[in-house]
Design goal:
With 141 residues, this protein is mainly alpha-helical. It is 41% helix and 9% strand.
Length: 141
Amino acid sequence: DYDGHSDLHVGITNSKGVVYNYDREGVHRAASGWEQCISVPLVQPDMPELLQQWDELLEEFSLEEAWLPHRYEEQQHNCYTFALAFVNRVRRGRGRQPLSKAQFTERFLIPRTREASRYLTLHRELARSDFYIVPLAQQEQ
């Protein structure tokens, strides 16, 4: 039901699919409730050593004082800040420059949200036009 006009909530997953996210109540770990999300891959497949450390890095990061509930501020210290700060922590650990909000948005988020927007537009149009989509039988493919 997303219309493209409201803010989205942002989180980072561990290797088991648990989403770490930050809001006015602090850091949450959610194993469900994110089924209708846009997934943005951040780790390349050729980085197995990073994948092995990811869960530990994320857990340690989420426990830092910066993410206590009283530090939350809707415009300047929010879920997006949490996700970007974690990404930049990982980048620094690998000797890479941190990304600004604009760089992160342009490089990682905009391509995925555009793709999702096209899908949602197509889905709405098909639903409004009473089309019915069925998978092709194996021999017809």
